[in-house]
Amino acid sequence: MPPLAKLREAALFASAAPVPVADLQAMAAQAEDDETTLESALAELRDHYDADGHAVELVEVAGGWQILTRPEYTEAIERAQLARRPQRLSAAALETLAIIAYRQPIERGEIEEIRGVGAGAVLKSLHERGLIDIVGRGEGLGRPLLYGTTAAFLEQFALRHLEELPRADELAIALRAARPAIEVSKENGDTPPRAD
Amino acid sequence: MVGTQPGTSEVFLVDLVEFSGPLDLLLSLIRDEQIDIYDIPIARIAEQFLARISTLKLDEAADYLEMAARLVRIKAQLLLPRREGEDVWDDPRAELVRRLLEYQQVREVVDVLERRAEDRRSRFARAYSQQADLVPVSGPLRISLPELLSAVDRVLRLAKKPHVHDVVPRALDVDGAMGIVRALLAIRAHAQWKDVLPRNAEPWEVLSVLLALLELAKRGELRLNQPRAFGAFDITRAPASEAA
């Protein structure tokens, strides 16, 4: 492996969180490094892990890179109590996160409007987990808090960036929503009776 | 619905039961009945909705009740007769359909997020990041008494010396004031409070004069008369001392 690839491997190994691309670049600034050589260094490292049969792999996540174990060893690692998988989020938490991810910055009222239930407890729990943050205050009455997703959100959902989420027009339901105005069928018992 | 987190169980979260909200319950009813979302038979759905929230013992959940009320209202609106030849008809179900579609979109994103989270959960980073957050708790402090005392000494040495004000005690001069009042009453039979008080009197002088007047009044050398509360009082030489 070229020295610059080894240097990046050391950095990735030493860090618990994904290492931002800018940091990886800055490490070799003196060595006349640029983006193409960073890419090639990371590609070199990834191929090395893949080709030589390593139990870890190089993953791009949350605007950086990270060395992660391969899924086939998860069970064994957990059984040996060396590490534990994080808890799954509740449906309410996932729905709230989905809304925030697409509509950020968004205030609590809008989230409640879309989900049809109060969001206070869920927002608190997501904030405590570091998945969302307060990103400002709205213009409305009482200047409500505005929420947005964090880097930890991208990390926990294996996203390189927010744009990796499906665009609204890629969602199946959006295609159906293109259907024209609501028609009233005659067979339906709920069709309002016509006054003669 | 995938597992719920125990961390939030102290709060009443509807999804702990089965559904994550009234829209979720409504969508599930529509799916079960294989109904076209654009043409919801409101009467039937409202009935089932009410039946479900009573069996789920969720009737205390305001969010569900609000939706139930909404469904009943839409049902009532649909029963209103439409006038012949009225070509523009606002379907009272339109807003509900819009919200259901929007919510269904959210559920689709949730599916994507769930898949990705599951993928990430099956991999470990080199340092288990949640462990990094836990600062190791150190045991109880183990220091000797001299160490503790020298530490206290260091703190006290660093602390600023308290600023002490010197307060000069100034005794009241009641006797002096009595002399002044007596001298004044020797010349005049009547006097005012302001006559016996020195110009620009300090508090101790005011108090001295007041006590002197009260003392002289007690001894019967003068009489004090205050016409109204907080008003100035008149000082009159007592007839007895006049005679003396």
Distance between the termini of chain A: 86 Å
Q: N-to-C SSE series of chain B? A: HHHHHHHEHHEEH
Largest interface: A-B, 70 and 70 residues
What is the H/E order of chain A?
HEHHEEHHEHHEEHH
Portion in strands of chain B = under 5%
Q: How can the largest sheet of chain B be summarized?
A: 3 strands, antiparallel
* Multimerization state: heterodimer
Task: Please render the helix and strand layout as text.
The complex is a heterodimer of chains A (196) and B (244).
Chain A: H1 3-14, E1 19-20, H2 21-27, H3 35-51, E2 56-61, E3 64-69, H4 74-79, H5 91-103, E4 106-107, H6 108-115, H7 120-128, E5 132-137, E6 145-149, H8 151-156, H9 172-177
Antiparallel strand pairs in A: 1-3, 2-3, 4-6, 5-6
Chain B: H1 22-32, H2 42-55, H3 62-79, H4 94-121, H5 129-133, H6 145-158, H7 174-187, E1 190-192, H8 193-196, H9 203-218, E2 222-225, E3 234-237, H10 239-243
Helix pairs in contact in B: 1-4, 2-3, 7-9
Summarize the entry for a quick read.
Chain A is α+β, with helices and mostly antiparallel strands and 196 residues long.
Characterization of the model:
The complex is a heterodimer of chains A (196) and B (244). Chain A is of the alpha+beta class and 196 residues long. Chain A folds into 2 domains: 3-79, Winged helix-like DNA-binding domain superfamily/Winged helix DNA-binding domain (Arc Repressor Mutant, subunit A, Orthogonal Bundle), CATH 1.10.10; 91-177, Winged helix-like DNA-binding domain superfamily/Winged helix DNA-binding domain (Arc Repressor Mutant, subunit A). In chain A, 43% of the residues lie in helices and 14% in strands. Chain A contains 9 helices and 6 strands, in the order αβααββααβααββαα. Chain A has helices at residues 3-14, 21-27, 35-51, 74-79, 91-103, 108-115, 120-128, 151-156, 172-177, and strands spanning 19-20, 56-61, 64-69, 106-107, 132-137, 145-149. In chain A, the strands form 2 sheets. Chain A has a 3-stranded antiparallel sheet. A 3-stranded antiparallel sheet of chain A has the order 4-6-5. In chain A, a hairpin with a 2-residue loop joins strand 2 (56-61) and strand 3 (64-69). In chain A, helix 1 (3-14) crosses helix 3 and helix 5 crosses helix 7 (120-128). Chain A is globular. The N and C termini of chain A lie far apart (86 Å). In chain A, 28% of the residues are buried. Chain B is mainly α. Among the domains of chain B are: 16-79 and 91-120, no CATH class; 174-243, Arc Repressor Mutant, subunit A (Orthogonal Bundle). In chain B, 53% of the residues lie in helices and 5% in strands. In chain B, a hairpin with an 8-residue loop joins strand 2 and strand 3. Chain B is elongated. At the A-B interface, strand 2, strand 3, helix 5, helix 7 and helix 9 of A face helix 1, helix 2, helix 3, helix 4 and helix 5 of B.
